[in-house]
Structure formats: C-alpha cells, structure tokens
Amino acid sequence: MGDKFSKSACKKLNYYVYRLVDPRTGSTFYVGKGKNNRVFAHAKDALKAYEGDSYLEKDEDEVSAKIRQIRNIHKSGLKVNMVIHRWGLDEKTAFEVEAALIDAYTSLTNIQLGHHWDRGAIEASALQEKFGMRAFNDRKAEANEYIIIKIRQKVLKSHSDDVYKTARKAWVIDPKKAQQYKYVLVSLDSEVVGIFKDVKWKRSSIPGRYEFDAVELDNKLDKTIIKRYMHKLLPKRYTKKGISNPVLYQSKI
Fold first, then answer.
1. Beta-sheet pairing, 146-151 with 247-249
2. Domain ranges for the chain
3. Cα–Cα distance for residue pair 50/91, rounded to 1 Å
4. The 191-203 sheet, strands edge to edge
5. Is 5 left (phi over 0), alpha (psi -120 to 50) or beta?
6. What is residue 131's predicted lDDT score, i.e. its pLDDT?
7. Residues sharing a CB contact under 8 Å with residue 110, sequence separation 6 or more, in sequence order
8. Regarding beta strands 146-151 and 183-188, do their DSSP bridges make them parallel or antiparallel, or are they unpaired?
9. Of the four listed, 13, 125, 235, 253, which is most buried by Cβ atoms within 10 Å?
10. pLDDT band per the 50, 70, 90 thresholds, residue 216
C-alpha cells in the first residue's frame, strides 16, 4: 500500500472508518474515521515524515500512546497495517460505525469514547433497568465533590466485572487537578455503578497516564453520598453531544 490515496479514490471513498493493526500481534490498537488521507497521517506524524499540515488534532489526548506504538512497530522493521472497515459513508454514519468498533475492541489507544457512547454496547437486561432510572441530583453537592470516570461493558467483563480494577487506570489527566476531588464516580452506560473515596492519584506504568488507589464507600458512614449517586444516571450535562472524554470533572448545574 502506498502512503496516500489518489484524488479520484478520495472522491469515491468519501468518509470511511479504519483500524490501525499491529502486524506483530494482529491486534487492533486504534479505530478512527476520516476522509481523504487521514488514515495515513498517524504513521507520518509518528515518524515526523509528514510534509504540510497534519490531519491529526493537535490536542488529541491519545496521541502519545498511539504514536509510541507506531514507532515501536517501525523500529521492529515492520509497518502498521491499515484496514478500511467501511467506506462511502456520510459523516453521521461514519460516527456510528466508528463508535461500534470502539465498543468492540478493548485494547485501543483511543482515549475518547465513540460518538453517542451513552447508547453503545449494553446487555438487554441492563438497558431495561436503565430506562427506569433517574439522573442524580447534585444540587447539595460540595465544591470538588466528585470526578466521573466512564468505563465500557466489554472492558468490565475483561476484569471479571470488578468495577475498581476496571476504573482505576490508566488515564490521561492532570493529577494535581484530579486530586482536588473527594470521590470518584464510576459510570457504565451513564449509570453510576461504583463510588470510591480516599483517592490517591499516581503515575501509571503507561507513560503519560495516571491511575488511582482508593477504597469503596462505607454503607453506613457514607450513606448520604451513596443515596445521592449510586445507581443513578449521569445528568444530561455530562452526556450531551460532543462530550466523549472518559474522565469528567464536576460541573455546575
């Protein structure tokens, strides 16, 4: 495969969804959508061989892990495999296909969840319960009371349904800012499924990312907080269109 599509090919492709695959393991490490030559931009940016304006967003949080993996692949004498999963799409459809693939692969370097992550992969029984839930009301919450971490069902399953193990690492955050918040609310499909306190943030084994140590709330001592948040849905201000970062800080109503 060359390093770019022809002009005629770009017109026929329109929007497409792609996967970046590590040839050493056959594992998909990044899912994205784009048009024209977006799929080639990752490797070019990683190797600093791209001439002209980058197709990549300058503030992409996942860039360090993704770029690091691409460089390691090239150091081994191989090239990233680029798979076009669907093409000839309009942008709205491309967002949906991208989100579905992000749900399907658990070991991605993507830090952002897919478009409309809040209606992504979920078991039927859980969806039925979700529709009967109400959003939590945090009008009485203290300043810096909580930080939200969103997890995915498939990743939770890979950790034997252990919410703490799933949620505690590894995130692209500002550890000093995160440390100001008293509780970590863990959200699965917009539902708060775990709450942790005595949170201590530290560097993860993955460069540029952080993890936390914490303890679960006590059913008696922390009764008010549990009642306020546990098994409640996230308010709409945390799930509205455009919000895809898996780490959210408490915001005002």
1. antiparallel
2. 7-111, 124-249
3. 25
4. 210-216, 191-203, 183-188, 146-151, 247-249
5. beta
6. 66
7. 30, 31, 32, 62, 66, 102
8. parallel
9. 13
10. very high
